[in-house]
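HUMAN: Would you supply a protein with fold tokens?

ASSISTANT:
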Amino acid sequence: MEFNTKKWVSLDKLDSNPLSIEYVEEVKELAKEAHSYLLSFPWCLSINKGWLVYSCGYVIGLFCFEIVPDVAKGADDHVWVIVGDLPPAYIDILSAPSAHSALDLYIKLMEEWASKVNNGENISDCYPVNVPATKEYADMLTTRMNLLKEDHLPLLAEK
């Protein structure tokens, strides 16, 4: 799959052009978190390149990475990673071919988890969320997903 990376900021250029990125120090921290998160999976052998696709300080960072995948595990060579003041997640490019669709899918996955937790349902088939499965965390996650839907997802539709 080909991406138009010209609209994105290469992660190796974050330091050289910080004025064009709002909250650049926070974005650099999110980029490190996304990088480490991605390398924690056995199907990601290494990272070739990464881009900042969208950010809003510590609230959210949406990145695209070109990786060296373990093809035996069925991994793609590009993956979206979402980090911030929310549970980290990766989204494969086949499920979400654009940044907008990646964030939209992320929201749906997190809402599914929160809904099942609030309804006392089994979450074993949900995307793993790195917090205890309690109503308190489910409600906090729902609030964050509403914020993403209202304030951030519409901005990605334009990109």
